[in-house]
């Protein structure tokens, strides 16, 4: 997003890309996600039989799984695509940057970012969907161990996205 704001020809959009604005956005985002997590706090109770956290209603676990999949699948891919395209358009309209072929570099960066997001988040969303489908199924210990192994492998795949992001720093 920041690349789009910095390359914009509109001064008010460029003004958004200031460090103070970044602090405000982080604060607002933190508040929103904290409020979102309160839903889980009020919809979960400790079972007196097992001592484990269980949802109060089936709707709350369905909401959590669908919301998580929506965030993972749709939003995390759509936002970089939209702002990557807008950034490409801004750079392409700037003659000097277009002559330096900066638009091609932006396309490569955005495509790499989207590919890494798809690789990491598709597997995590798939595992979450599998968990949602098999919520009421009684599983053997072997099946639980296989699911745990899959979870560990998928967490490793998800960490690839973050590791690749650190390489570019």
Provide a descriptive summary of the structure in words.
The chain has one domain (2-167). It is 80% helix and 4% strand. It contains 7 helices and 2 strands; from the N terminus they run H-H-H-E-E-H-H-H-H. Helix 6 (102-133) packs antiparallel against helix 7 (141-167). The longest helix is centred in the middle third of the chain and has 36 residues, at 58-93. The model has no long low-confidence stretch (mean pLDDT 79).
What are the key terms here?
mainly alpha; elongated; single chain; 169 residues; two-stranded antiparallel sheet
Summarize the topology:
Layout: H1 2-7, H2 11-16, H3 19-42, E1 44-46, E2 53-55, H4 58-93, H5 95-99, H6 102-133, H7 141-167
Antiparallel strand pairs: 1-2
Helix pairs in contact: 4-6, 6-7
Structural class by SSE content: mainly alpha
Number of helices: 7
Instruction: Count every beta strand, where a strand is a DSSP E run of 2 or more residues.
Output: 2
Distance between the termini: 17 Å
- Radius of gyration based on Cα positions: 21 Å
Strand adjacency order, main sheet: 1-2
Order of helices and strands: HHHEEHHHH
What is the molecular shape? elongated
Helix content: over 70%
* Poorly predicted spans: none
Mean pLDDT: 79
Sketch the major β-sheet: 2 strands, antiparallel
Summarize the structure.
The chain is mainly α and 169 residues long.
